[in-house]
Amino acid sequence: MNSARIIGSVLGVLFTVLGVWGGQRLIEQRSSGWLWKAATAVLLIGASVAGVLVSVPALPIVNESIRNLFFHVPMWFSMLMVLMVSVWYSIRYLRNPSERLDVLAHESAKTGIVLGMLGLATGSLWARFTWGAWWTPDPRLNGAAVAMLIYGAYLVLRGSFRDEQQRARVSAIYNIFAFAAVVPLLFILPRLSGPSLHPGQTGNPGFNQYDLDDTMRKVFYPAVIGWILFAFWLTQVSSRFAFLQLKHDEN
Amino acid sequence: MRPETTPLPVPLLREITTLLAKDFRLEWRQKSALGGLLLYVGSTVFVCFLSFSLRGGQPPAPAWNALFWVILLFAAINAVAKGFMQESPGQRLYYYTLVRPQAVILAKMLYNALLLVAVALLGLFLYTVFLGNPIQDTPLFLANLLLGAVGFATTLTLVSGIAAKAGGNGATLMAILGFPVMVPMLLLLIKVSKNALDGLDRSVSDQSLLTLLALNLLVGALSYVLFPYLWRG
Prior knowledge:
The structure holds two protein chains of two kinds. In chain A, helix 3 crosses helix 8 (214-250) and helix 5 packs antiparallel against helix 6 (164-192). Chain A is mainly α. Chain A has one domain (2-250). Chain A has eight helices and no strands. In chain A, 41% of the residues are buried. The radius of gyration of chain A is 19 Å and the shape is globular. In chain B, helix 1 crosses helix 5, helix 3 (61-85) packs antiparallel against helix 7 (170-198) and helix 5 packs antiparallel against helix 8. The model of chain B has no long low-confidence stretch (mean pLDDT 85). In chain B, 84% of the residues lie in helices and 0% in strands. Chain B has one domain (12-231). Chains A and B meet through helix 5 and helix 6 of A and helix 6, helix 7 and helix 8 of B. Chain B: One of its GO terms (cellular component) is membrane. Chain B: GO terms for molecular function: heme transmembrane transporter activity. Chain B: It is a multi-pass membrane protein. Chain B: Belongs to the CcmB/CycW/HelB family. Chain B: It is found in: Membrane.
């Protein structure tokens, strides 16, 4: 039991490091990269279709809404991954300033915000039909909402500079600082605050039980990978667009 | 073989104490800022007292707690906001040639922490005078208050530096940037303070206090690392 947990954490860290490193490679890729994009499309569409059709354990309260696991959770995972990529770009910017790194950090953060909004929306919808309310004062929910506020502040900060270099540097600093505030909000405080309605904690049939279900795992993991790759794809497209705009403005 | 760098004759600690003394002297010379802060705390507490006296006497403990922290939060933002903003760009450049940026941020954090501890204690005193004191575990409440004041200072110091860089409406920007970042700390503080009000067993608050301490250290270390980059501009 204990060694399984240790192996699980080590694998998680490895996956994260690989994701951040690989994410940068994919986002900055110059070739078309049709292979991984095709794989993303297959994974996303496949996981979404299978997520609706596959048979799920009939648990009380959640019933069919358990399928949200295939959508809501991968969105949060991919948000975290792309935000970590953004922080890494910001760190790289501070060590070695260039306009390119600033654009990449900004676009990654924007993708993260979009995915976070999607995560909030799917979670809220799920809560309406499982708990009977769109929003409850649950530590997990509030943490997620405040995390979104922090990144909203990041965008406001970017908007309040006229000098581009100054904007790039100061927003890189705030990005790193903000991520350090997001980590306790999403990971430490919910665990400290005791009982929570949110699955995966106490109360409600937790997701831990579902994870033991093998069919669900077979859909869940591909969905996670698909959504993460999709986040990188989105960032790649938007940063290419931003680069083109910059080039256009220069001429 | 030592790398050839320009030797810095003055140790970091000396720089910090000099800057700290400068900040205190400035504060003392411009008593209006300090007076404004005290007046701010005093008048908000008095407004609370007036509005609660309409319903005859003391507020219930949860309201007492919430209002106390809201007052402290806004006082902290007002107190810290002027730190970097009252300095002109020329002044900043002058300091830059004289001292290390690490000394500047550490001195500023230390100064803000001392200022906020004083404000928090004064706030608690006024609060006790006007609105009563429902605290059952005073040492725990005071420890929590100290951690809170230091935490506000460490978090807001870097944020005020960032907001000062943006120029223009620095105070508004500071609230926008600062509030969400402070939420994790604030949640823990309010929770521990509620435990102290209710006189719960200390073991209930242990973990939260430790997390608060860890958060303070994290934010302080991050400010220390990031500030030199902020200052370079």
